Structure to design on (141 residues):
């Protein structure tokens, strides 16, 4: 499976942000399927699904402010997993607090993006995510 066919896992609890992300990717004609986890617990359930044969995502877009299990804990568990720690994780969050940024990088995040509020600016972010993480980057599959 190439990175152009692999899914993207969006870990996001805000329905409006989920819709915004879907619309941005649709507008860019992104062909990757978009899997959604609406809280940290659902995000971690994907580990079992991948173990069961579900395709691994080309990238995980992870919000930090999540119910049940917060995004930093999800990141910690993913990056401590012997196999799935190689999946690129980009934090996509509203938090621009230094402590969140530092914590995310200490835990092994690959990128930290503060969500733009404006839809047109968000489209630019979606375009950059697509170009870099889906088209140009070559993760182990």
């Amino acid at each position: 499976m190439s990175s152009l066919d692999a899914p993207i896992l969006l870990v996001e609890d805000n329905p409006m942000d989920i819709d915004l992300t879907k619309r941005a990717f649709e507008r860019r004609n992104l062909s990757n399927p978009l899997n959604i986890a609406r809280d940290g617990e659902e995000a971690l359930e994907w580990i079992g699904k991948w173990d069961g044969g579900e395709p691994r995502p080309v990238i995980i877009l992870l919000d930090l402010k999540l119910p049940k299990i917060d995004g930093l804990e999800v990141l910690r568990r993913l990056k401590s997993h012997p196999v799935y720690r190689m999946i690129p994780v980009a934090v996509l969050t509203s938090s621009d607090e230094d402590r969140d940024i530092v914590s995310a990088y200490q835990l092994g995040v690959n990128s930290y993006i503060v969500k733009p509020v404006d839809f047109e600016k968000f489209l630019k972010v979606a375009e950059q995510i697509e170009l870099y993480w889906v088209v140009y980057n070559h993760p182990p599959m």
Observations:
- The chain has one domain: 8-136.
